[in-house]
Amino acid sequence: MGRKPCCSKEGLKKGSWTKKEDLLLTEYIKEYGEGTGWRSLPKKAGLLRCGKSCRLRWVNYLKPGLNRGTFTPEEDDLIVRLYTLLGSRWSLIAGRIPGRTDNDIKNYWNTSLLKKLKAQGNEPREHKSQAKKRRRKEEKANVSSQINRKNNNENKKKMKKEKIVEKHNIEDEEATKIEEQPHAQDFAQPVSDSNHNFTSSCSNQDGTSSSTSSSEIHSSSQNTEYHNQDEIFEKLQVIDELLLNDNCLFQPEKCIEFNNNENHMLFEEVYEEYFQLVSENSC
DNA sequence: AACATTGACAACCGCGTATTA
DNA sequence: GTAATACGCGGTTGTCAATGT
């Protein structure tokens, strides 16, 4: 079964979006919301664009509440820490940084932050998942060059089988990792969840999903030998409280106001302690 | 002034997964 | 149970403005 393209490419516009297109998309979503299906949206909104392209434009550029200002040192720090823990799971990282999108962070990481860190001699180690990905890519490249096209189908079947086995191996490894570092994943839970109790679904590297609630995290942390897990959890809760506050630290227009109030002092204090604890754990 | 290089960011593409029929 | 479809993610490429030569 060949996968069809997400949409017919014929007659569809590509490249930069015009103001008129932005307006059409914004107006449509304002009226009907995001949940009406991206595929059918362009036609309904009068756009000659692929639904995928519309989604991307909305999510990364037009959506209200996006922070398009320069990255603050706090955000830099947060990104580096989360990258160390999660690798290039940009959407998860973005979920912890209000107003920033995965694309934003990914671009910033690739164009600025990584260079900055290299210059400082603080280049982060390649994350486990990244190393695995890289190896798989290299292997794939080698294998594909050797595959005899006549036997392509057979090889595909074989690879499919191998993938299943590999998937199981990854799952085993993830499970082991969680056992070894009980809360490495916990830091990936979005701060901006509306229910605000850390209940969230989390996409794993292999694409599987898991969900954890704060109570589960808390109770499991009590069973761990890591003495500071509870403390980290508490700090995270405080940070979340502060981030969900109207005077969110990462909204630049509110920064001045924020800098002057007590919450900011508290945030800095808790933030400092939080990263100390995370550092101890992630090293 | 003209061209080359670099940096930042927007957008595209392909893949994996979830959902639907 | 399976194929078709839709969505979301991460890697990569394209574009354009700023800067250097």
Main traits of this protein?
about 280 residues; mainly alpha; 12 helices; DNA-binding; nucleus
| Pattern of helices and strands | HHHHHHHHEEHHHH
Classify the secondary structure makeup into a structural class.
mainly alpha
N-C termini distance: 46 Å
Largest sheet: 2 strands, antiparallel
Q: Report the total helices.
A: 12
Q: Provide the residue-averaged pLDDT.
A: 62
Number-wise, the strands total 2
User: What is the approximate shape?
Assistant: globular
Helix content: 55-70%
Low-pLDDT residue spans: 1-5, 147-227, 246-260
Instruction: For the largest sheet, list the strands in their spatial order.
Output: 1-2
- Radius of gyration from CA coordinates: 22 Å
Pfam family, one: Myb_DNA-binding
Keywords: DNA-binding, Nucleus, Repeat, Transcription, Transcription regulation
Subcellular location: Nucleus
GO molecular function: cis-regulatory region sequence-specific DNA binding
Blueprint of the fold:
Blueprint: H1 19-32, H2 41-45, H3 51-62, H4 73-86, H5 90-95, H6 102-119, H7 128-146, H8 152-180, E1 200-203, E2 209-212, H9 214-222, H10 229-244, H11 252-259, H12 262-282
Antiparallel strand pairs: 1-2
The structure holds a DNA duplex (21 and 21 nucleotides).
General description of the model:
This protein is mostly helical and 283 residues long. Among the domains are: 19-62; 73-125 and 182-282, no CATH class. It contains 12 helices and 2 strands. The protein has a two-stranded antiparallel sheet. The radius of gyration is 22 Å and the shape is globular. Residues 1-5, 147-227 and 246-260 have low confidence and may be disordered. The chain binds a DNA duplex (21 and 21 nucleotides) through helix 3 and helix 6.
